Amino acid sequence: MDIDTPCIPLAHIQTYFDLRQTLVPDAEWLERRTQLTPVMVRNPHELLELIVGIDQHDFYRNAQIDYQPGDTGCFISTRQTLALVDQAVKALDMPYLGLAMGNLMTISHHGMAGVAAVTQPTLRGCLDTISRFCAELFPPLEMNGVVEGDIGTFTIHENLSLAPYTHFFLELNMVSFYNIMQQLVAETGLNLHHVAFHYPEPPWGHIYRRYFRCPVLFDQPETALVGPAALSDCELPLANRLMAMAAEKTLFENIPTRAIRLLPLRLRRLLLRYYGAFPSLENAASDLGMSGRTLRRKLAEEGTSYQQELDTVREKLAKQYFQRGGESVTELAMMLGYGDSSAFAKAFRRWTGMAPTEFLEQREAVKAEAVEAAA
Predict the structure, then answer these.
(1) Phi, then psi, of 191 in degrees rounded to 5
(2) Is residue 295 part of a domain?
(3) Last residue of a domain, one of 33, 59, 93
(4) In Å, what is the CA distance from 334 to each residue of 106, 114, 309?
(5) Which of 123, 223, 357, 369 is least crowded, fewest Cβ atoms below 10 Å from its Cβ?
(6) Residue 66, class by beta-carbon neighbours within 10 Å (0-12 exposed, 13-18 middle, 19+ buried)?
(7) So where does this one cross the membrane (predicted)?
(8) Residue 171 in contact with residue 154, Cβ under 8 Å?
């Protein structure tokens, strides 16, 4: 999978990226942008065209998307998705558009995916469902919920670079999921410790603090919602297993997916299952239903290799190990299949630009900052 692989169902993007439904500016904003009062514009489609300066057909055509209304089988690439974001951000002159859109989203904006998630028995089940749907509906991002000791985290990582709009996608998802989680567990009295973003604070960083009612930290090891582990077992008020199953069935009947067939992603998922005892290329190929030669060829066609994918998985697992409290470089080197800690340290520096000990020191500094922010 690369930036031009058509793997994102346009129907999924439309559930939350239809500006006519999502952007509902207030009266003052409308008057400033259009020099018109809301009562002067009665057609919402006309309103969007006045504000943004493009109509729906131009919006897709400018992103090189050949879309016809009613086409439920259209897939778009990451590059085309970024082109949609670029048009909206520039036309609306809102670099913080991800925050605004995320805050306007309700469960209904996520369609059947949202219904299937919030009708799970517990918050852990809800987040697991969100992670699984993300893998199928928006493979450039990867989401994971993890509980370690008394801390629970819900992380979002890029499988593909979404630059220059990384912040848009992370802002949108973090604000949206934060609001939904707060609604689902409101009666428990439990709150998130903090939200973390892996990039430096942007010029509009102060706007983040309008949307999150907890400390917001930047330049962190990973982008995550962080809270007490007890949240994961909270029973959800909308829990209904039959409704959850029906919603998921309806979702995938109406929105086709391709991500499950993308070989690099399938290989990564396979390798993650073998954490601690990674298979050889030949064994991995057998598990994927092909010969080693075929796996090599198909990965090469995707611009990658078995070693590259293995290193990607190793890097992810190494960072998670340290971020969740692990400290033994020797233990981690063995779990990741390295002959000794020096070989692992060399690879780790190649991935992160720092030695494992430096990464651990940074982790402790981040912890101290989070404690100070929460005090």
Answers:
(1) -130, 160
(2) yes
(3) 93
(4) 45, 40, 18
(5) 357
(6) exposed
(7) none
(8) no
